[in-house]
User: What shape does this take?
Amino acid sequence: MLIKTPSKSACTENQVTDESVYQQRRQLLKSLGFLGAASLLHTSQASAFSLFGDDEPKKFLTKALNYSPASQYQTTELFTPEEKVITYNNFYEFGANKSDPAQNGQAFKVDPWKLSINGMVEKPITLDYDELYKTVELEERIYRLRCVEAWSMVIPWVGFSLADLIKQAQPLSSAKYLVFETLYDPKQMPGQRSRFAGGGIDYPYVEGLRIDEAMHPLAFLAVGLYGKTLPPQNGAPIRLVVPWKYGFKSIKSITNIRLTDKKPPTTWNLLASNEYGFYANVNPQVDHPRWSQATEKRITSGGLFNTSRIPTQMFNGYDEVAPLYANLDLKKNY
Amino acid sequence: MAFRLSVKQITLLKVFIHLGALIPLVYTFYLATIDQLGAEPVMALIHFTGIGAFNLLLLSLTVSPTAKWLKQGLLLRVRRLVGLYAFTYALSHFLTYIVFELQLDWALVISEIIKRPYITVGFSAFLILATLTVTSTQAMQRKLKTKWQKLHNWVYVALLLIALHFIWSVKSDIVEPLIYWAMALTLLALRKDKFLLAIKRIKNKRKKTLA
Assistant: This one.
């Protein structure tokens, strides 16, 4: 249970202002989207006197989703505002700065899409774009997301348990790991076009889970957030959410899930194995070599003076996964 | 007749430096307080003040090569001001880090400075800049006499430490830090005669003591 302690008479005010500013901003973004779409029809008055009308980046269109509300996965914690969830992203395929993915991803094409589940399974599956939303019934879950960079968010995701999908493919008993792969499409993803723009990562981005981790009911495949389909910067159209692990495990824009009997290489581990392990379980006792993991900055609203550090919890507070690691030295297997 | 900057023009240049350094700093802090500086205002401020300090330090180190190249001796009069703003940004960077990032958790502040090499390096550079700031007045210059120049040559050490602090702090996107390394090394290369002379002097001293 996380309760913020600092006295906050001023902060409430900040939040109120903040809320309204967000409304204005959203309104502005909406109208930009409207302008963008309208200019295509050559009927918009605004585009007639806007010199740069054609250059205006069209906002990626998200759609409202049908889902059952969260019953089990609720929280009393403050949500991270949607505007922050969709503008502060690590998705190096669209650039290495936090604001890059929201800026560079808006033209990303997610339909058509193919997600394949293959490898050591009885029945390989391939889902197309529409099937992502229909194969398993959608539900909303509020999860904490803890980034390895020591910041965190509280996000209402829409999606389904990873296990529910994997079971449909009927894994063989010899399968020990799941390997996830992000779309590789340098034409759409500027980070994949050059080593410099993409932060030196060898693409495609790959991640992995042990099969018992993957089959844990908490492991989630998200197709939406805040009730709508995912925007590109958050990993549209489908992404992993493993709330007890650092954010980089939660791979985005997945095209392939392969079941295998060998521990797979994973992207950040390949890049700096002393800093990013295969397990990457949230653990306040094991510091990142360059910063402490004992506390985290929760991203909410209210600006500079509303910032607070809160203690980081073991497994990000999801103690139910502890039995998965009963026989594992978590200091060595960070 | 060659063009010469007048004292008046130097004063005007100083006004521009004041405005150019202060307005962005104050405005960015203002945006952070009203939560209009992206999703994570603290990190945004840390990056802004850090890179700002680096930019200003590089700028202060281009003053004397530029003055020499354009034969504008008076230009040297703005060097101290630019250097002081480099320190102002560095101070804002440091304060943002300990007040807002670490929330004045002093045990954490001390352990981070000691335990994290890139923080240690940055903090060392900050201490150098603070020393140079305190001793930057003409009174101190008179008081320290020949020692003053020796002391202020530490700015080159600070420059390298800051470049190291920057490249060490990023996760994997080292393009920008590498560009800054290139700029820093270029400015040092412009002073290679000075460094060669210093090395020569040290060698001579050693020879003398050996003899």
Summary: Residues 4-54 of chain A have pLDDT under 50 and may be disordered. Chain A touches chain B through 39 residues (CB under 8 Å). Helices of chain A lie at 9-40, 45-49, 82-85, 100-104, 162-168, 190-193, 211-214, 267-271.
